[in-house]
Amino acid sequence: MPVSDLTFSMVGSGGDGVVTMGTMVAQSAAAVGLNVMKVEAYGPQIRGGESSCTVRISSEPIFAQGDASQVLVVFNWADFARFRGEIQVSPDAIVLYEAKDKTPRDQVDLGCDEDVRWVPVPFTKLAKSAAGTTLAKNIVTLGLLSELFNIPQDAILRAITKKFSAKKAAVLEANLKGFQAGIEYAHEIEAQCSGKRLQYKPGEAKLLMSGNEAAAVGAIHAGCRFFAGYPITPSSEILHYLSKWLPRVGGRLIQTEDELSAIGAVLGGSFAGVKSMTATSGPGLALMTEMLGLASMAEIPAVIIDVQRGGPSTGLPTKSEQSDLWQALWGSHGDAPRVVLAPTDVEDCFHATVTAFNIAEESQLPVIVLSDQFIAQRSESLSMLTLDHEVVGRQVPSAGDLENYERYRDTKSGISPMSWPGIKGGEYQTNGLEHNADGSPTSMYLVHEKMNAKRYRKLTPVRDKYSIYKRYGSEQADVGIICWGSSKGPVKEAVQRANGRGEKVSAFVPQLLYPFPAREFRDYLKSVREVIVAELSYSAQFYKYLRTFLQLPEGHTYVFKRSGGKNLTVLEVENKIQKVLEMSSLRREVLV
Known about the structure:
Elements: E1 5-13, H1 18-31, E2 35-42, E3 50-58, E4 69-74, H2 77-81, E5 89-98, E6 117-121, H3 123-131, H4 137-149, H5 153-164, H6 169-189, E7 207-210, H7 211-222, E8 226-229, H8 236-245, E9 252-255, H9 259-271, E10 276-280, H10 282-287, H11 289-298, E11 302-308, H12 325-330, E12 339-341, H13 346-363, E13 366-372, H14 373-376, E14 379-382, H15 445-457, H16 459-465, E15 469-473, E16 477-482, H17 488-500, E17 505-510, E18 512-514, H18 518-525, E19 528-535, H19 541-547, E20 557-561, H20 570-591
Parallel strand pairs: 1-4, 4-5, 5-6, 8-9, 8-10, 10-11, 11-13, 12-13, 16-17, 16-19, 19-20
Antiparallel strand pairs: 1-3, 2-3, 2-14, 7-14, 12-18, 15-17
């Protein structure tokens, strides 16, 4: 039976090439216009260790990774056990596993019924026989998968050729033989693997891009020409990408000795007149706290991308969580205004980064882009035509501004013209101390009160201009879901499924987290009967943040929260919707 939506998961040890295999599957599908989402997961080891890759392919738009894998490839059952609870297998899945792994079946916990089709495959033996090396077993598997499940073979062959073309001809030839061996072996087991062949019509090729790549492209598009950063999982790909591309557009990049010096260099670059950015994760953002205060006090534009991971401390470096929210919103000494944005998918990473630069330049504030590992390191297919966004340039002070120039002049908007070294008449004194309009240090209460008001006044026009949010589902709903960041994808798909069943469900997803679009949110609350707040934070940071300044419906608000480490699934959201619908229905019956 042909299918239009199929999810593959591959599990193995470091060196098995499961991520490379997943990438090639994803690339081949995107090349023929299919919708793709690829998610990777690793153990905490620096080198080696277990790894997994899940690829969802569909002829219809998709917004979340598959709830359960219909096809599972396992090179080593011991590695699969380390992902227990993260990789879900559908009840009728096809499991292709290494034939020489003699782990008893009753010791393998797939977390589903025994309708699974177990198919042993001699991956290692096939690779050694056809390619002369066991390292080619991932290429053998690509041939097998492409033949069994109708993954575009020509596109995979092009990907293999591209990957190995720089090596000796014998290496390419060996891998092509391995690919063919997989195709031929597929015919021996196709009877056991029937019913899951992809059905699709080839279309225009799509880009396959990760969130980190999209953020880096967004930075270049926005005019960023200086990046300083220290590598930290899961943000390092931004550093890697920009190290290659910034010099090609006349920019500069420096890898610093730590995160504190990185944000210091960014503030120096921006002070000197160049759009500047850094990228980090939770532990690095913690180290940047003091310099964020300096950016607020000295009113220096700066963009900081925080790719969240599980915490606290070094926590779960390779897994996603939404637990840096409080740190991003309020991590400061003193009153240090900043703006916080939250992209919801890969394409949003591009737009959010450009928007962050626009806000930073207009408002002379630090702007934090609060991404997370699920968005940043997953890959999605998208149209290149969507990667366009209006750009705000560095504001150049006019001649009138420079007459009797006061860098921190109190204005109605709170924004005062910023010069930079080399502009005649634009000289001024600045540091981290409180200051008068001309930048001279002072500790007077009256000046401090006035300058605090000036700095915070800049947030109002940001809220008015950039109240960015997404809304999905029924205009008037029995259940409304509020979430943020990467939770959007599973929530959106759950809302669509509920609407398809005739249930009145909707969702509100703010992308400007601070200052919060409170007016739009209050309007949304008027359209829903019951409210679910969904997030991947054990302490319910988002729910508690909303409660600091908003009145959520008493007795009609439900919190769905849990730790990160496992991405939110559509099924989890659907289950919560059903429970709330049932409780709401019972409540109405009692009232009647």
